[in-house]
Description:
The protein has helices spanning 12-24, 29-36, 40-52, 74-79, 82-94, 108-116, 130-136, 161-167, 193-204, 243-252, and strands at residues 26-28, 56-59, 62-65, 101-104, 124-127, 143-146, 150-152, 157-159, 172-177, 181-182, 187-190, 206-212, 224-228, 234-237, 255-258. By secondary structure, it is α/β, with parallel strands linked by helices.
Amino acid sequence: MASDDHRDDLNTRQRAMLALVREQGFVAIEELARHFEVTTQTIRRDVNALCDGGLLRRYHGGAGLASSVQNEPYTARQVSRRAEKQRIARAVARQIPDQASLFITLGTTAEAVAEALSDHRDLRVITNNLNVANILIDNASCEVIIAGGVVRARDRGVTGEATIDFMNQFKVDYAVMGISGIDRDGALLDFDYHEVRVLQAIIANARAVYLAADATKFGRNAMVRVGELSQIDALFTDEPPPTGIQRLLADAGASLFLAPEEAGA
Length: 265
């Protein structure tokens, strides 16, 4: 379980460690110490920080990928990498004009996009995320349409068969979606089967699909396939994706928007 006081910023070694574990699946503590030429105590501290943030999982003698069957708690995701999500959200908002219709999905990055859209005019927003609705309801020119279904207490997300049927009634200009993981083969992954089916309906009923995902989602495991990178029109992220993912985006004709740390931040 991720800690609420998880630091958003990883140092260079921790980022490299995370990339190495994602590539190999599991790495021993002593192997990591030799690779980075530091003590095993330093590596254990790094592993603890990554595990507390839900990015890795501790195993006897080493570290492996985080669980593919359970996402980190919503309260932890709210504070994790918040600055990066806000930058990504502003990049998304710059590509959405006034007087547009759009889906906004579940997830803390999608909620950051809703905040970034607060000054847009005459939007028509369809969402299954009560947090998104709460953010945008203060914009008097924005019409918010809430999907029916079962409300999840943990994150105020609405899911279920009724939600899928509801989404299938619309055809909108844009879908703004988050994701739990992007596999190296281009698969878009999530944890909740019911949520995934809603996402699939959203993708099918949008003229343009915008995926907002911070760099920790590259190579992250989750057990349910949502779709493929070839189904999106643009990826918004905070760091350059791995070369393989960039190649898949180019092959699909999808745009890549980077939102690096802003000067003076």
